[in-house]
């Protein structure tokens, strides 16, 4: 038992140092978004996908491209537009004639066959095209003409989304939102950060990201995350958050009156993995309740919806989640 613990400690120390270097490399290109960068790395370290939400021009695309470089991942980008079709993402079969005159179908892989897929402005595509990613995100494979095709390892989707109030957007269906481990809100920079951005990005040369981690090392760290022990108090905090967020099971009257639908078991899994990943990023061997509280909004926000009466009364999902967090503080 001591040997196993020592092995985990050594591996965690090495992983934490690599992750520190990765964060520094990303920070040299993406300015003033430390929390966003940490959450994005947390999602990938947990083996999941992330949805970055914010208005255009907040470096969401730059962040994804930089993550691909720093983590050493093969990266492809798909610009989602209203005329984008599922085959443009997944690939398609074409009928070809061989040298012997025989006709047969050949599968041409789409951009989804990569390690890091950037789905840019995902909510500008039709619901049919959005749903093309459902199987890929959950099962790490796609089925074309009845034939399954495995995706590369690791496989992650980092999608950017414009606020749904903007023109030409289609809300993501609940089933697809649930596939995203975290929803990461990208906000406007502070005054000092914006001043720094202006000075550092309008010169004769731009900063370039450097590779800090290999795909093999990333897969090893993802396996390490699942080995980190979770205390009983952290487990109870996760269960309290998730179960009390469901109106049918909640012990909180305001949740029962305001929430239309709440998170499923996948939210608890996301909180468990993301809390472990956050601990590893900080160089700790096990997550704490503080990790659960810090990740409650990114994990739950896109997995809950208020009813009409609550929205009309000016309530928000964020305030409901804060109420849930108050029970375990």
TrEMBL record:
Q: Which keywords does this chain's UniProt record carry? A: ATP-binding, Nucleotide-binding
Describe the location of the ATPase AAA-3 domain by residue ranges: 49-182
GO MF terms listed in the record are: ATP binding; ATP hydrolysis activity
Q: Does the keyword Iron-sulfur apply?
A: no
- Pfam families associated with the record: AAA_3 (PF07726), AAA_lid_2 (PF17863)
Taxonomically, the superkingdom here is Bacteria
List each copy of the ChlI/MoxR AAA lid domain by range: 256-323
Q: Which CDD domains match?
A: AAA
- Presence of keyword Cell wall biogenesis/degradation: no
Q: Which InterPro entries match?
A: ATPase_AAA-3 (IPR011703), CbbQ/NirQ/NorQ/GpvN (IPR050764), ChlI/MoxR_AAA_lid (IPR041628), P-loop_NTPase (IPR027417)
Q: Family, per the entry?
A: Belongs to the MoxR family.
Which named protein is this? ATPase AAA
Q: Which organism is it from?
A: Litorimonas cladophorae
């Amino acid at each position: 038992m001591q040997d196993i613990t020592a092995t985990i400690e050594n591996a965690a120390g090495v992983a934490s140092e690599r992750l520190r270097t990765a964060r520094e490399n990303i920070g040299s290109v993406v300015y003033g978004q430390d929390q966003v960068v940490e959450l994005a790395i947390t999602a990938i370290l947990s083996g999941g996908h992330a949805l970055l939400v914010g208005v255009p021009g907040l470096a969401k695309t730059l962040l994804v491209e930089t993550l691909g470089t720093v983590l050493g991942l093969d990266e492809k980008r798909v610009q989602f537009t209203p005329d984008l079709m599922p085959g443009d993402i997944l690939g398609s079969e074409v009928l070809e004639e061989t040298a012997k005159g025989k006709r047969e179908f050949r599968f041409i892989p789409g951009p989804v066959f990569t390690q890091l897929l950037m789905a840019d402005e995902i909510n500008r595509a039709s619901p049919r095209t959005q749903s093309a990613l459902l199987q890929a995100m959950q099962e790490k494979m796609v089925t074309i003409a009845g034939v399954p095709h495995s995706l590369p390892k690791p496989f992650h989707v980092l999608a950017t989304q414009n606020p749904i109030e903007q023109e030409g957007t289609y809300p993501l269906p609940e089933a697809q939102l649930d596939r995203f481990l975290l929803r990461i809100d990208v906000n406007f920079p502070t005054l000092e950060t914006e001043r720094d951005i202006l000075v550092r990005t309008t010169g004769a040369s731009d900063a370039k990201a450097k590779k800090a981690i290999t795909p093999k090392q990333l897969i090893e760290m993802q396996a390490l995350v699942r080995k980190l022990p979770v205390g009983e108090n952290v487990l109870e905090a996760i269960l309290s958050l998730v179960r009390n967020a469901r109106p049918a099971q909640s012990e909180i009257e305001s949740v029962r009156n305001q929430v239309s639908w709440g998170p499923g078991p996948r939210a608890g899994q996301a909180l468990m993995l993301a809390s472990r990943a956050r601990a590893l990023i900080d160089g700790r061997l096990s997550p704490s309740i503080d990790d659960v509280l810090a990740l409650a909004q990114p994990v739950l926000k896109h997995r809950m919806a208020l009813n009409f009466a609550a929205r009309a009364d000016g309530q928000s999902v964020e305030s409901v989640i804060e109420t849930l967090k108050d029970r375990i503080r």
